[in-house]
Amino acid sequence: MLATVIALLVLGVLYNAYGATGADFAAVRLTGVLQLIGLSGGLAAVIVLAARRGVGRDSAVVLAAVALGLVGLNGVGRT
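Below the sequence we write its predicted structure tokens.
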């Protein structure tokens, strides 16, 4: 999964650099769609792995806490 996340991040940066500007790395956007998909997939994998290590009711508590945290962070940093 780590390789997929890194590949999406690199491909996203390269696509943004070579897409419209023609190899202009000064105007690269680091928050492109591919980068966000890669980060979201990596975060989801970490959450799933953490939940699988939990046993019984603890797993549900961890998932509920993560869900509430993500809902709370929704929109942070947007202007």
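The two ends are 32 Å apart (CA to CA).
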